[in-house]
Design goal:
- The chain is mainly β.
- The protein has 4 domains: 7-166, no CATH class; 178-243, no CATH class; 249-325, no CATH class; 333-361 and 368-387, no CATH class.
- The chain has one helix at 16-24, and strands spanning 7-9, 34-35, 37-40, 46-50, 52-53, 70-75, 83-89, 99-102, 118-121, 125-128, 131-137, 140-152, 158-164, 166-174, 177-184, 204-207, 214-216, 220-223, 226-232, 238-243, 249-253, 260-265, 268-272, 278-282, 284-296, 302-308, 315-318, 324-325, 333-341, 344-352, 358-363, 372-376, 383-387.
- The radius of gyration is 25 Å and the shape is flat.
């Protein structure tokens, strides 16, 4: 257990100096292992909800508890057992669950781990300090850091959020340039090499100077308009990069109103600015990640309409001999919903795209004032107007 902090932490407790020496060595091969440094911080890099249960795990020794406990299992491919058990307890018999136990050493017990201290606590939330979890590696223990945040609302609404508190970064040779690169465990499962068409199951990579910001990890990485093949060690400690050769591209067509388009697939994360509604991608399977439409109104104000949060129905294939045509962008649908609580009625309004994606509108880079809702009784005895608030 440790407090939230920022520090360089070794991948392995054993022979780190020797590993760094290997990482700094240069060879003529573009496929050399380029080693990175492990960092931790109180600023979480990614998040993942864990399922809570009141059923105690079979065969797991428990610590002395003060109240009826809650349990959760953090799954990870880094553990031969497939995950680690957690237990939530209270310092008092009632109130917020503010004691957390986790099997940090992977021995299948919870009674030999000290409780994790809370960093911040309110009536409804408890945020815990970062926890160092150890895995067995080929050359020694591998450290990983997790943060947890517990939410307890009215009734039985209890939630536990796991947060990645560690990442790898360092200077890496990409092509003929040295660039700082950062690896993020995007799905918070302890590994750093996960690839998927579903962004929620994918890890992320950040390259210094990349205008796209964070990219979801794939077989290829696009930097300054060039494609590189990238291989990441499962524990994130090193990667290999070489220029991609012999890549076959296919054509993609979107409405000409689309200003920017992004897709995620096994090949990687690609951002395109279509020219007359056309662009190319490496041949393969993808899912739409984001689209954007930019316009100016009659007063010269810049407006941006964007779609995000796509599901599997937004998947598409890119082939070398057949253009892929995507019907995205306008029109969008307004979804008005109501809910009743006693004598009060609450209204919510959201916008959806063609495949159910979430829509966001910005004016000059900021959210405009919410839409107006006017309600009137049939007889005209009541008439009221309110503005929706973003939230």
């Amino acid at each position: 257990m440790c407090n939230w902090f920022t520090v360089n932490f070794p991948r392995s407790v054993v022979a780190w100096a020797a590993l760094v020496a290997v990482g700094l060595a240069t060879t003529a091969s573009a496929q050399q292992e380029q080693w990175l440094e492990y960092h931790t911080s109180h600023e979480a890099k990614a998040y993942r909800w864990l399922e809570i249960t009141t059923n105690a795990p079979a065969g797991v020794a428990l610590p002395k508890l003060n109240a009826a406990p809650l349990f959760a299992r953090w799954t990870t491919p880094m553990d031969p057992a497939g995950g680690r058990w957690l237990c939530l307890d209270r310092a008092r018999k009632s109130g917020i669950y503010d004691r957390l136990f986790i099997d940090s050493n992977g021995n299948g017990r919870l009674d030999d781990d000290p409780p994790v201290d809370t960093q911040q606590r309110t009536e409804n939330t408890a945020e815990f300090n970062a926890v160092r979890v150890l895995f067995k590696g080929e050359d020694g223990p591998i450290a990983y850091h997790l943060g947890f945040r517990f939410y307890q609302f009215s009734g039985e609404d209890k939630r536990l959020l796991a947060q990645s508190a560690g990442w790898y970064e360092g200077r890496v040779k990409i092509g003929d340039k040295q660039r700082r690169i950062e690896l993020i465990d995007g799905n918070v499962n302890g590994a750093f090499s996960d690839q998927s068409m579903n962004p929620a199951d994918c890890d992320r990579v950040v390259v210094d100077g990349d205008k796209a910001g964070q990219r979801y990890l794939g077989r290829m990485l696009e930097v300054d308009g060039q494609l590189f093949r990238i291989e990441v060690a499962r524990d994130g400690a090193f990667l290999k990069v070489q220029k991609a050769e012999g890549i076959v591209f296919g054509q993609v067509r979107v409405p000409e109103t689309i200003s920017e388009f992004a897709a995620v697939g096994s090949n990687g994360h690609f951002v395109r600015k279509p020219v007359k509604g056309e662009f190319t991608l490496p041949v393969g399977q993808y899912r739409i990640n984001r689209w954007e439409i930019d316009r100016k109104d009659d007063k010269g104000a810049a407006w941006t309409l964007s779609g995000s949060g796509f599901n599997e129905t937004a998947s598409f294939s890119v082939a070398a001999d057949q253009p892929a045509t995507l019907d995205i962008g306008e029109p969008m649908r307004g979804m008005l919903q109501t809910s009743e609580a006693g004598s009060e009625v609450a209204f919510s309004l959201r916008f959806q795209g063609r495949t159910g994606e979430s829509i966001q509108m910005l004016r000059g880079g900021e959210r405009p004032r919410g839409p107006r809702l006017t309600l009137a009784s049939r007889g005209g005895s009541y008439r009221g107007t309110n503005y929706f608030e973003f939230g």
